[in-house]
Specification:
about 160 residues; alpha+beta; Pnp Oxidase, Chain A; 5-stranded antiparallel β-sheet; two-stranded antiparallel ribbon; 11 strands; binds flavin mononucleotide
C-alpha cells in the first residue's frame, strides 16, 4: 500500500512511526507477520504509488494475479531480515519489526517499528546525506492530496559553527 503518514522516531535503536488504517489488507499482513517494509518511492514511481494506494490487495485474493506485485507488475527483491519483499526502483528501503503497542494501534492506527535493516541508492544517498542533484527522476515524492505530490528540492548547507 501507499503510506504517506510516517516519520522517524529515534536513532538508537532506529525507530519509525506509521499510520496504517484498520481497513487495509496491509494492516492484516503486518499484524500477522509482526514486520513490514517501507519502500521510499521516487518521481518515476509516482503512478505506481497511487495505483497501490487506490486498491486493496484483499480484492485480489484467489485471482490468478493474487497480489499487487503480480497484478501491477512490480519487480521486487528479497529483504534481509523480514519476509516482506522490497520494491525495485525505490531509492531507500527500511526493514522494520513492529514494536507492539496495542493501545495506540487500536486507538490511532499508529504503528511503531524498529528498523532492523536499511538501504539506500548510493547515487542519491551517501555519508548520511541525500544528494539528488543531477538525478531529478530519483527525487523522493511527498503526497499533498488527491494524487498531487511534491518532489524534494535542492539541498543547502548552513554553517552551524556561526550560529
Ligand atoms: C499517496 C497515498 C498515500 C496514502 N497514505 C496512507 C497512509 O499513510 N496510511 C493509510 O492507512 N493509508 C494511506 N493511503 C491509503 C492506502 O494506501 C489504501 O487504503 C490502500 O488501498 C490499502 O491497500 P491494501 O488494502 O492492499 O493494504 C494512501 C494512499 C495514497 C494514494
Amino acid at each position: 500500500m501507499a503510506a504517506a503518514w510516517n516519520m522517524p522516531l529515534d536513532f538508537d535503536p532506529p525507530k519509525i512511526a506509521i499510520v496504517i488504517d484498520k481497513n487495509t489488507y496491509t494492516r492484516e499482513l503486518i499484524e500477522a507477520s509482526g514486520s513490514f517494509a517501507i519502500n521510499v518511492p521516487c518521481r518515476t514511481l509516482a503512478e505506481m504509488t497511487v495505483r497501490v494506494g487506490s486498491s486493496s490487495g484483499r480484492e485480489l485474493l484467489g485471482k490468478p494475479q493474487a497480489d499487487k506485485f503480480a497484478a501491477f507488475n512490480i519487480p521486487t527483491f528479497a529483504a534481509s531480515k523480514i519476509a516482506a519483499p522490497l520494491v525495485e526502483g525505490c531509492v531507500a528501503w527500511l526493514e522494520c519489526k513492529v514494536i507492539p503497542e496495542p493501545h495506540i494501534q487500536d486507538t490511532y492506527d499508529l504503528f511503531l517499528g524498529e528498523v532492523v535493516a536499511a538501504w539506500a541508492d548510493e547515487r542519491v544517498f551517501s555519508n548520511g546525506r541525500w544528494h539528488f542533484e543531477g538525478h531529478d527522476d530519483l527525487r523522493t515524492i511527498h503526497h499533498v492530496a488527491g494524487g498531487a505530490f511534491m518532489t524534494v528540492s535542492d539541498t543547502f548547507q548552513v554553517k552551524t559553527t556561526d550560529i
